[in-house]
Amino acid sequence: MQAQKAEGTRDLIGAEMRAWQKMQQIAAGVFEPFGFKPIETPAIEQVDVFVHGIGQSTDVVRKEMFRVFSGANLERVFTEGTDTKLKPKQRLALRPEGTAGVVRAVVENNLVPQGSTPFKAYYAEAMFRGERPQKGRLRQFHQVGIEWLGAPDPAADAECIIMLMEFYKRLGFDLSKLRLLINSMGDAQCRPAYREQVKQFILDHADEMCDECRERAELNPLRAFDCKNDHCREIMADAPLMGDNLCDECREHYEQVKRYLDVAGIEYVEDPTLVRGLDYYTRTVFEVEAPGAGVGSIGGGGRYDGLVELEGGKPTAGVGFAVGFERALLALQA
Ligand SMILES: [Zn+2]
Ligand SMILES: [Zn+2]
């Protein structure tokens, strides 16, 4: 039988490889003047890097992560029926996204010692997720992203968004055809009580909602806002919103971000139901859509002030974003 590529993967040949290289060049051209330097972290990490950072309850960690075992360990997993007896360093995964690995590198190398200047890096790497392959969704895909550690100020959130839109512009997008969505997801002070409210809301409407949302109520209630089921969406339209439950500090932070964007002339749409699928986000989150291209979001990011601690470091603010190469290309072609 003729050899075939793995399902959900693609070869980058000729023009497509050129397009990927060009995207990397544009990334360097846009991000380096802002002080960002290139970084590359390994494609495999200890699985705990993702479990701690992205969150045990997320779809990414529960369903989509490719696990990796070397020969002898794989045999043990088969024999023992579990990987829990392996050492942490023997339990590996392919990176499903770029942020957790960069933050792990920052913690491990103490790149943001207390009182130092912020750490700014950008990457262009392959990511791996075991999703059902469909248009714009691959099992090995490429992302360009930035991470900015040690920057608690709302000006950093705004600067990220400004850089992101500049990046799209240089890629060839007509910015008036893109939609930038923003929201605040609160922080450790105000989100837990809000999360509880949404959980209660779902439980109150459990008999009308899909099985997956009922499961979400316990694990990750905010994800119910993303349910594809029309009836769930109708119900969630009446759910309590984070925006009405922000603490004073989060509200002020969010207002500041919007003021900076207004001054910079960046158009945005506030979407109070925008919750990015990863647990680590705090406060500002944003996403860019190319309406009509049929590929969903073409990039996004947000603030993650708790992530460095989740990876075992000292409290350090952070913010960043990632742009999917394949989806951006599809959207450009559309
Ligand atoms: Zn649902
Ligand atoms: Zn708050």
Describe this structure in words.
- The protein is α+β, with helices and mostly antiparallel strands and 334 residues long.
- The protein folds into 2 domains: 15-43 and 97-190 and 246-333, 2-Layer Sandwich (BirA Bifunctional Protein, domain 2); 192-241, no CATH class.
- Helices cover 39% and strands 18% of the residues.
- The protein contains 12 helices and 11 strands.
- The strands form 2 sheets. It has an 8-stranded mixed sheet, sandwiched between helices. The protein has a 3-stranded antiparallel sheet with strand order 2-4-3.
- A hairpin with a 7-residue loop joins strand 9 (282-289) and strand 10.
- Helix 1 (15-31) runs antiparallel to helix 6 (154-171), helix 6 (154-171) runs parallel beside helix 10 (248-264) and helix 7 (191-204) packs antiparallel against helix 8.
- The longest helix has 18 residues, at 154-171.
- It is globular.
- The model has no long low-confidence stretch (mean pLDDT 93).
- One zinc ion binds next to helix 10.
What's the count of strands? 11
CATH superfamily of the largest domain: Bira Bifunctional Protein, Domain 2
Rg over C-alpha atoms, rounded to the nearest angstrom? 20 Å
Order of helices and strands: HEEHHEHEHEEHEHHHHEEEHEH
Summarize the structure.
This protein has helices spanning 15-31, 47-54, 59-64, 71-80, 99-108, 154-171, 191-204, 211-219, 230-236, 248-264, 307-310, 325-333, and strands spanning 37-38, 44-46, 67-68, 92-94, 119-128, 140-149, 179-184, 269-270, 282-289, 297-303, 318-324. The chain is of the alpha+beta class.
